[in-house]
Amino acid sequence: MAHESVLSEIIQKSALRPRLPTWREMNWDTSPEAEAVLFKLWRETPAWRKLEMMESLNQGARQLALMGLRQRFPGASPEELQRRLASILLGEALASRVYGPLPT
User: Fold this and answer.
1) Confidence grade of residue 14 (pLDDT, cut at 50, 70, 90)
2) d(Cα 34, Cα 26) in Å, to the nearest integer?
3) Cα separations (Å) of 38 from 12, 51, 53, 54?
4) Quick one: which of 71, 65, 77 has its CA closest to 102?
């Protein structure tokens, strides 16, 4: 009985969440031939290179986030900007525990 109510709750919550798009929906303009080449190249790429690429993407995302923070808080010190970035990356609760509260 208890399992049924938990399952029912999970089903109800998942119905409220929007469905993520499929690969095909996100790449509707990519031909199957181009997709096959892309997948072949990705499979052949060594793991170290994939990690390198992901690190580059992460660095770019951090830089963009810092640029946005500088625009929103033009008078903020570099330390405050780093603290605000921590809130974005870690969530406010964890960032507060690790780095202390945001300056007011």
Assistant:
1) low
2) 14
3) 37, 17, 15, 17
4) 77
Q: Give me the mean pLDDT over the 66-74 stretch.
A: 97
Residue 16 lies in a domain: no
Parent domain of 96 = 45-104
Token pair in block for residue 56: 């580059």
Number of domains in the chain: 1
Does residue 50 belong to any structural domain of this protein?
A: yes
Cβ atoms of residues 88 and 66 within 8 Å = no
In a domain, 25, yes or no: no
Q: Is residue 65 in a domain?
A: yes
Taking 90 as the threshold, does the pLDDT of residue 25 lie above it? no
Query: What is the pTM assigned to this prediction?
Result: 0.65
Among 63, 54, 57, residue whose Cα is nearest residue 88: 63
Cα 101 versus chain centre, distance? 23
Mean pLDDT of the chain: 89
